[in-house]
Specification:
The structure holds two protein chains of two kinds. Helix content of chain A is 42%, strand content 16%. By secondary structure, chain A is α/β, with parallel strands linked by helices. By secondary structure, chain B is α+β, with helices and mostly antiparallel strands. The chains are: A alpha/beta, B alpha+beta. At the A-B interface, helix 7 and helix 10 of A face helix 2 of B.
Chain lengths: 269, 92
């Protein structure tokens, strides 16, 4: 049985696609068969972050409409063969997706992959509801900032009421909090909500804390998910997320300001 | 005196913007959660009344009866009644 994981947030621009790309690639690097689905119909971007934008021929909506087979639409990642991407369409046909046809695609993908990662669009419209409907688990991507936390709480409410698991009265979706763009320095100065603050408010288990990092922009510039940048703090933090998703218990890193050693102070580290 | 002021000011704990953010969020999130789960005031009385009518005709235990008001897709409200009938009753 494939694990269907939705990466969601409510608010836009908090790092859903960056996280989907990093997590998808990270799981595949561990040897799992992974498919990444872009649910942002009309505004696809996962292809760009994954660096495969020029290889898109068919998309999710083509598959739904029977204009292409899954095999034709899936793009195999050039770096890891066990990873595929199903791009969203660029036309505005948002009504193309419904519970029945998305369910069918997920069922077919479930036979081929261990993990199905659904990159949700922002908002609480049909597209976002479609992305979370079939999920077994949800990664709620949140910035330590008031509007993002509030929107995350709304999405948590949706997961509990509008998902397939909720409708059928099954075991609820397993929720994970992923705090992104975290700045330990600003937290120390009392200018930013701390991990504990956000955990307190949302009360869902913490999956990871990704520090605010220059590596993230560099990664999207290059179309190389940031998890490949193993030197970077963000890359390492995503690696910890992968290990936790796979059941390991790992201490959280990058939560406090690193004290500069005398060498880096002298030579500018 | 200025020197004394300096030390005193350092001591008093300043309210940080982060703690204000947390406080505001706790209030608004709790408020929104409440309105999300809120059932209309008439629901308990409606439940009682429906049970009274039902029991004129059939035996219904409290456990085999449930009532729920659901909000689907924003503007569609659905009142859902679930009544389990036992075999001997359905045949009569």
């Amino acid at each position: 049985m494939a694990r269907i994981i939705v990466v969601t947030s409510g608010k836009g621009g908090v790092g859903k696609t960056t996280s989907s790309a990093a997590i998808g690639l990270g799981l595949a690097l561990k040897g799992h068969k992974v498919v990444l689905i872009d649910f942002d119909i009309g505004l696809r971007n996962l292809d760009l972050i994954m660096g495969c934008e020029r290889r898109v021929v068919y998309d999710f909506v083509n598959v739904i409409n029977g204009e292409a087979t899954l095999n034709q639409a899936l793009i195999k990642d050039k770096r890891v063969s066990s990873l595929s991407i199903l791009p969203a369409s660029q036309t505005r046909d948002k009504d193309a997706l419904n519970k029945e046809n998305v369910g069918k695609v997920l069922e077919d993908l479930g036979k081929l992959y261990d993990f199905i990662i659904c990159d949700s669009p922002a908002g609480i419209e049909a597209g976002a509801m479609m992305a979370l409907y079939y999920a077994d688990e949800a990664i709620i991507t949140t910035n330590p900032e008031v509007s993002s936390v509030r929107d995350s709480d709304r999405i948590i409410g949706m997961l509990a009421s509008r998902s397939r698991r909720a409708e059928l009265g099954l075991e609820p979706i397993k929720e994970h909090l992923l705090l992104t763009r975290y700045s330990p320095k600003r937290v120390a100065e009392g200018e930013m909500l701390s991990v504990e603050d956000v955990e307190d408010i949302l009360s869902i288990p913490l999956l990871g804390v990704i520090p605010e990092s220059q590596a993230v922009l560099k990664a999207s510039n290059a179309g190389e998910p940031v998890i490949l940048d193993t030197e970077s703090d963000a890359g390492q933090a995503y690696q910890d997320v992968i290990d936790r998703l796979l059941g390991e218990t790992i201490d959280f890193r990058f939560l406090v300001v690193e004290k500069k050693g005398i060498f880096s102070r002298m030579f500018g580290g | 005196m200025a020197l004394l002021d300096y030390f005193l000011r350092k001591k008093e704990k300043q309210v940080t913007t982060a703690s204000r953010a947390k406080e505001r969020l706790q209030i608004i999130v709790a408020h929104e959660r409440n309105s999300r789960n809120k059932q209309p005031d008439y629901l308990p009385q409606l439940t009682e009344d429906i049970l009274v009518v039902l029991r004129k005709y059939i035996q219904v235990s409290d456990e085999s009866f449930s009532i729920k008001l659901d909000n689907k897709d924003g503007d569609l409200n659905v009142l859902e009644l679930n009544i389990e009938l036992h075999d001997e009753q359905s045949s009569s």
